[in-house]
From TrEMBL:
Family membership: Belongs to the NadC/ModD family.
Family matches, as Pfam families: QRPTase_C (PF01729), QRPTase_N (PF02749)
Keywords: Glycosyltransferase, Pyridine nucleotide biosynthesis, Transferase
EC annotation from Swiss-Prot or TrEMBL: 2.4.2.19
Name of this chain's protein: nicotinate-nucleotide diphosphorylase (carboxylating)
Quinolinate phosphoribosyl transferase C-terminal domain location: 114-277
EC top class named in words: transferase
Domain Quinolinate phosphoribosyl transferase N-terminal: residue ranges: 27-111
Length: 281
């Protein structure tokens, strides 16, 4: 699981980008408010959701105005109810309003990812299968979304193209075959996990003999996956992928595969409905 300590530089970069595109060279609307005005505000969730993005919100107001006080009433991974207060703010009214949209955009997107991941994780909670995300993430927010996936109770696949092999059909064709692809992967980067995609039982056996760590079963039916688990007999980990829907998820989870990868965790997330309101004194 990614930690906020290792994500700190990425959080700072995410926020800097968000503020650059939103605030630009100044918030001309906030300038309508006297600079001396001091206000309090609160942010609530308009729906049941899993919260994620505290560090990003804190960083928004740190970059906008370090004197703004942020008081959290929940933490990342908490399941909150409709109309529940997530955090309170106190500081310059200009600063609160300037940081509002960037903070809420990040919080609602990451909470949406965490919420969807929580829903999927709950469906398979009584099975031993691990649900994995994919690289189908919002550009620029990959690490943030992968953190959100873990806050929701699912797990991360590889982070990018650099930390593990995932040898797919086109790679196999370009390398000259399954055996050649796996052998070259071992030679080029010893110690890196080697996963390979197969479409048939014959390809599965070749991948197992060649020493793949993980085999992705692409578009296998649940029945074929049960047979593939038996065929593999513990020689490698197995991952189910392709055309797995809400209706068929449990069918695949009960086949005995180790992992199910679901692109929807990050690409089908819907932003959580949040609202910030200034508190009248």
């Amino acid at each position: 699981m990614l930690t906020l300590t290792e994500l700190k530089p990425i959080v700072e970069e995410n926020v800097r980008t968000a503020l650059d595109e939103d605030v630009g060279n100044g918030d001309i609307t906030a300038e309508l408010i006297p600079a001396s005005d001091h206000k309090r505000a609160r942010v609530i969730s308009r729906q049941t959701a899993v919260v994620c993005g505290q560090a990003w919100v804190d960083e928004v107001f740190r970059q906008v105005d370090p004197s703004v006080k942020v008081q959290w009433l929940v933490k990342d991974g908490d399941l909150v109810e409709r109309d529940q207060v997530l955090f309170r703010l106190e500081g310059s009214a200009r600063s609160l309003l300037t940081g509002e949209r960037a903070a809420l955009n990040l919080l609602q997107t990451l909470s949406g990812t965490a919420t969807l991941s929580h829903e999927y994780a709950q469906r398979v909670a009584d099975t031993p299968v691990t649900l994995l995300d994919t690289r189908k993430t919002i550009p620029g927010l990959r690490m943030a979304q992968k953190y959100a996936v873990s806050c929701g109770g699912c797990s991360n696949h590889r982070i990018g193209l650099y930390d593990a092999f995932l040898i797919k059909e086109n790679h196999i064709m370009a390398c000259g075959g399954i055996e050649q692809a796996i052998a070259t992967a071992r030679k080029n980067h010893p110690g890196k996990p080697v996963e390979i995609e197969v479409e048939t039982e014959e390809q599965l056996e070749r991948a197992l003999v060649a020493g793949a760590d993980i085999v992705m079963l692409d578009n296998f039916s649940p029945e074929r996956m049960v047979a593939a688990v038996k065929q593999t007999a513990g020689r490698a980990k197995l991952e189910a992928s392709g055309n797995i829907t809400d209706e068929t998820l449990m069918d695949y989870a009960n086949t005995g595969v180790d992992y199910i990868s679901i692109g929807a965790l990050t690409k089908h997330c819907r932003a959580v409905d949040l609202s910030m309101r200034i508190i009248e004194d």
